[in-house]
Fold:
Amino acid sequence: MYLSDKQSTRVFKAFCDENRLHILSLLRGGEKCACKLLDELHIGQSTLSHHMKILYDSGVVVGRKEGKWVYYRIDPEGSAQAVALLTQLTTCTAEAEDIDCLCGSRRAVV
Structure:
C-alpha cells in the first residue's frame, strides 16, 4: 500500500479537527444522513459540507446521494489505508546501533 505525499497529507488533515473527529465517531455506528450529522453537530450546512469534503478527499469517508440528501459512511478500504499509513510512519526500521552525531558525541540507538 502506497499513498502519495499529497494523499497522506489529506489523510492526516482529516483527523486534525474536532468536528471531523466527532463526525467519524458518529459514522462508526454506520451510515448517517447529512441531516442527522447536522442535528448532532449543531453546525450549518456549509460547514458540514466543508468537513465532509475533507473527509471524502482523504478516502476515509464515502457518500451516496439519495434525493436531496447525502448519506455518509466510513470506507473500510480508506480506513485500512489510514491505519497502514500511520503504522508505516511510526514504525522504526533501524536496528539498535551506535550513531556518530555531527556534534561529535556517540550514542546508542535502541
Notes: Residues 5-109 form a domain with the Arc Repressor Mutant, subunit A fold (CATH 1.10.10.10). Residues 61 and 75 are 5 Å apart (CA to CA). The longest helix spans residues 76-90. The chain is about 50% helix and 20% strand.
